[in-house]
Amino acid sequence: MKFSRSLALAAVPLLAALTACSGGSGGADGDTVRIGTTEAGDRSWEIFEDKAKDAGITLDVVNFSDYSQPNIALSQGQIDANLFQHLQFLGEYNTGADDDLTPIGATQIVPLGLYSQKHRSLADIPQGGEIAIPNDPSNQARALFVLKGAGLLTLTGDNPSPTPADIDTTASKVKVTPVDAAQTALSLASVDGAIVNNTFLERSGIDPTSALYKDDPSSPAVDDTDRPIRIRHENLPVGKEDAHRCRRRGSHHREG
Which CATH architecture has domain 2-108+228-253? Predict the structure, then answer.
């Protein structure tokens, strides 16, 4: 319920951004905005849909099974906007794909946690234990900071976006295995623990309160890399005549 409530509180700025993209018209038939997400089953979407309906906008929520798809679909015009990522993830996508998707609104960040099916506490994790972490750069970096905060891993230097190459293997208690973020929860049966993004907790039947350790979304380390910022591209069109351009470029961001 805490997650749903926070999403509900974010519905107003999101709706405002969508209204700008749709040109703000609310005719008899209204406008339809196709928005991509990895959490279409979350009950909070009912609140979004109700508020959008009040503004004459019909939301068509399109679900994607992993993080690699929503930005591609947006770039190709299959959807009008998406909501699933934080700014660093979006920046890395734009750089790697030579794209220019633009953030037009913000929602919230949720904690990133370490989960295990084999151990009940951090102390139970054995020396040399294996931890699965997301393999995309931004979520991987945050996962490494989670393990550092849990006292399971030591990093060398002060790289703000660490990779497994920055791990001091001699001083660390665990080793990491990067996998697709969608596979972290599925790997729990074969590893000592996994860093699992909020997106994949519910669909895997994992209780968010069962985490052995979580980071603090308000901490400076998370704030530097993941906190959404309300931002509009200086040339972002908001007029009805340019609605199709806005829809192609619109990306809402949150915890990855």
Answer: 3-Layer(aba) Sandwich (3.40)
Lowest mean pLDDT among 37-41, 144-148, 168-172, 238-242: 238-242
Q: Which of 239, 247, 227, 252 is nearest to 105 (CA)?
A: 252
CATH number, domain 113-218: 3.40.190.10
50-62 pLDDT, tens digit each: 878 887 788 888 9
E strands present in 108-199: 113-115, 129-134, 174-179, 193-196
Find tokens 């749709």 and name the residue.
22
Query: Over the stretch 37-84, which tens digit does the pLDDT of each residue have?
Result: 888 877 778 888 887 888 778 888 899 988 889 899 988 989 888 888
185 by Cβ neighbours in 10 Å (0-12 / 13-18 / 19+) ranks as buried
